[in-house]
Amino acid sequence: xxxxxxxxxxxxxxxxxxxxTVSHISHxxxxxxxxxLIEELPSELSFYVPESHHKRIIGHGxxxxxxxxxxxxxxxxxxxxSDVQELYGLSIRKxxxxxxxxxxxxxxxxxxxxLLMKTAVLEASEEDVIIINVL
Length: 135
Known about the structure:
- This protein is α+β, with helices and mostly antiparallel strands.
- It has helices at 27-40, 54-58, 63-72, 81-88, 113-125; strands at 7-12, 18-23, 42-47, 75-78, 102-107.
- It has a 3-stranded antiparallel sheet with strand order 3-5-4, covered by helices on one side. Strands 1-2 form a two-stranded antiparallel sheet.
- Helix 3 (63-72) runs antiparallel to helix 5.
- It starts with 6 loop residues before the first strand and ends in a 10-residue tail after the last helix.
- This is K Homology domain-containing protein.
């Protein structure tokens, strides 16, 4: 890690987890490196917006959502019904309405932007009443 001159190694544990080894001869620089690493870990917020509104929020060629993502420094993913079924491990027979279908991610150091982005997405949907679930 350049800022602290610490050594950082990542080792795959399984498809969901990794081992991270951070080392430095200076205790203070090691702590600083760990803090910087933690700031880069992802923060996530998910909520529900009717799928019929996704296209309007995204805009032609993604222009609307790109503008909002750039403003808040976050990444947004809109899930369709089949994505939601796969994410939640549901069979095709189970209803998928009202499950979180919008995922917003950003590094932890920018986590205050998650709620701002959520508000911007909900405003862009022009929906009077939306049921919101936060995981």
